[in-house]
Amino acid sequence: MSFELTVGFGSVFLMVALIWLGLHVAVALAAASFLGVWLIRGDVELAARLLGLAAEDSIASYVFGVIPLFVLMGLLVERAGVGRDAFDVGESAFRRIKGGLGVATVGANAIFAAITGVSIASAAVFTKVAVPQMIDRGYNPRFAVGVVAGSSVLGMLIPPSLLLIIYGVLVEVSIGDLFLAGILPGLLLAVLYAIGILVMARKTPGFVGTPPAEDDGRPGLGWPTICAKLFPIVLLIGAVFGGLYGGWFTPTEAGAVGAFLALLVALARRSLTPARLWEVLKETGHVTASICILFVAATMYSRMLALSGFPNALGDWLTASQFGLTGIIIAYVALILILGSILDSTSIMLITVPLFAGPIVALGADLIWFGIITIIAVEIGLLTPPLGISAFVVKANLQDDRIGLKDIFLGAAPFAGIMLICLILVIVFPALSLALIR
Predict the structure, then answer these.
(1) Pairing with 60, which of 109, 138, 367, 426 sits 20 to 30 Å away (CA)?
(2) Residue 216 pLDDT > 70, yes or no?
(3) Mean pLDDT of 288-297
């Protein structure tokens, strides 16, 4: 093995070790990159200059504007109370079904996901909206928080998903195609969740709880009320995706249109004071800045690895191995699931995708299919301990001290299993992710 390859190989272990020691992922990536270039070139000034250029180039693209715009759209929709409206409609539709409130939560999350794209926002909204109502109706608190944590991950699969945007920028594939590719797997996951809830309500009533008959005599929502609650949702989805797939908008322009319409909805509902608008803008800035810092560090790391020749060597080794595409995908998914116990979704993608994208393409696989696999695998990590960000968000927004993190993780465990089934189906049947773009 040449010296350059040794440096590239060693940098991977150094980066993982620094993260395990508690260093921020971006700092660990930047430090490993700087040291790697310094060792390969033998010039500290050259290393600093090369990494400076990488930082400048990493987020200079126009397409990066799509990230803050869709984040802003999601936060404005959250403040406007659209999530509660979607839940009210779902509750009215499924109230006569055993376990119907759980199915309503999944349906509302799927609708909310189509206009936010952020799992954390979904978890925060439905923890406040759905969990108290489910507990009041006799559902097991552990099941109630598990449904919310599990269904919140739909926000990262059903477009406009923030992770799909990040993946598209990372591997330079069409964000519009990725959005289309996420529709069928996202709907499939929502349907599997609903089926799982109905089965659990009948087979494991001790886990689900013993709610009374869902039809408690209260009148359901009338059509005028349903139409009024769904109109903003239909408007946002129709405008953003109709314009995007109709060829009228680029993804960045679609994000701008969506953010503007979300602002109008929030203002029309009088749910956005100047102080709350300022909070939304600050939160948008914080989310965008954290993603951009990770992107800068990941670009540095990718260029250092390219300089060492490690990705090409890894690709040649994997291509020549007897594992085949299926074996490599299984190993890749296993690695992501392991990293999901210690890292957030964005960090996992920025570390693993640059290493495996090349070999996957060399084996004839489609990068869009690979992206959907990546998103589903990464999102399983949101439900698994000890990091499980969705579980922590649910806990932070709960107003019930009787429910601990252990309860949330145990409640979400069946939904993590259902996600694994969905992931297997997407791996075995690539058409689930590619049918709408072929």
Answers:
(1) 367
(2) no
(3) 80
Task: Find which of 16-20, 116-120, 154-158 is predicted with most confidence, using mean pLDDT.
Answer: 154-158
Q: What is the pLDDT of residues 347-392, one digit of tens each?
A: 788 888 888 888 888 888 899 999 999 999 988 877 877 667 777 7
Tens digit of each residue's pLDDT (9 = 90 or more) over 251-261: 788 888 888 88
